Amino acid sequence: MSASDKPAALGAPRTLSPLAVVGATLTIGAHWSAGTLSVGVLTWPQVMVAAYFTGCYALLFSLLAVLESVRRMRRFRAPDGRIDVAALWRAVFQADSAVMGCMLVFGAILAISGNANLVQIYRSATTVWYDPVLWQFEQPLWRAVLRFRLVPLAWWESIYHLMWLYVLLVLALLVKARRTESSVTLAVAIVLAFYGTTAIALRFPVAGPEYYHPASFAHLRGTLSGQLQAYLQAYQAGRIAQNGLLYGTMAMPSLHVAITAMATWFVGRHWPRALCCAVPLALLIWASTIVLGWHYALDGVAALALAALCVASARAIVRRCWRAAGG
To answer: How do the domains of the chain map onto residue ranges?
Structure first.
């Protein structure tokens, strides 16, 4: 049994204990900090979103099993040409890993949900934004971005919204390969990144280019990003109540870039040859956050530092929890 598999042998409770500890601590802390602004420890929409992401993950995990079955089909072909489908499926679909992965995703999304209470604080307490500083610093970049729109917005929209699909795919690959420590570390790091970005935003509020200079992004009206930005702006202005899912108008650092960078780091750690595809995709996702007016370029730079900090912290938490649990 490899070192990465050993914690899984302790059972789901101990394997997922780092996520449970981090999630419970941050969720309760955010609820307590928000006081009367809190929407509660958990809301029904948050549970529904957690179930949705878990379902998406399960589909990706099953798809990976199907692809592997096609690759290994010859090994299960009998002399008469028939394929032992049952034996093949047992070999490629590890039920324990599938369940563990679903629990990991469901728990991570629920843990993330508590961050909505910190967002409530951000909405009510923030009165000064530092967008003028970043906009002025990046003027040459924004002149180029707004002047040369060679690629259709729909293409950039597709790239931008690939982030969660990419992250869930990486997580599914880690779980299927029984990289237990890495999969749990990635999940914990994502939770830390959500709370970390909001904590930074409370100290250094940045709304984002589209909110600071809306006239420059009039071309986004009617697009999905334009609609989401208008919806979040309405929440920030107090016209829409928090349902436990709204993130507000905060850009520094970019959560999108941070999560993408963390997933790419794990790809490089376990499948370095795949970086030839993962790195260009990560860079395109970063570029999409700029083109669509969500973030300044410096938001992405700060996100890389946050990603490194979250991965390092998550790894230390996972190892300490497992040692305490006898893993």
So the answer is: 17-31+39-325
